[in-house]
Request: fold
Amino acid sequence: MDIFLIVMAALLMVLGILGSFLPILPGPITSWFGFLLLKFSTPIEISNKFLIITFVIALLIWVLDYFIPAIGTKKFGGSKYGVIGTTLGLIVGLIAPIPGGIIIGAFLGALIGELLNNTDSKTALKAAFGSFLGFITSTFLKFVVAAIYFGLFTSILWENKSVFN
Reply:
């Protein structure tokens, strides 16, 4: 049973890294569930403090993932309409069955929001570009956290290599 839990935990770690790029999976949270499964493995000890800290970080990254594109829109001169458009575009892009829907949704949402606010097209495009940069930033942040979690996972397994004997 322990080997099964470890293999499932490893799968969740890999899915967490993939989830950093795929909008369907919440990357770091998926990786965190790998730690949780590892906790239930008999020979491997993971402290509750470690689980709580890594969960809070994963949760924080998950929440920031929805705000960073809106912050990028605002930093590049977007108005309240652009920020709202970015948020709505992210939601629509998330459920839209098109490849890259979340990127396209954030960009178009900011652009449409700014154009509805009677902003000139140059400023609207700049705000939409800020939304895109925000999305890229949040994706990179999720990837870094998921990669660190994978490194911690590997380190934990390395310290407990007797599990495989």
About this structure: Residues 2-164 form one domain. The chain has a mean pLDDT of 86. DSSP finds six helices and no strands in the chain. Helices lie at 2-19, 27-39, 48-75, 80-95, 101-116, 121-159.
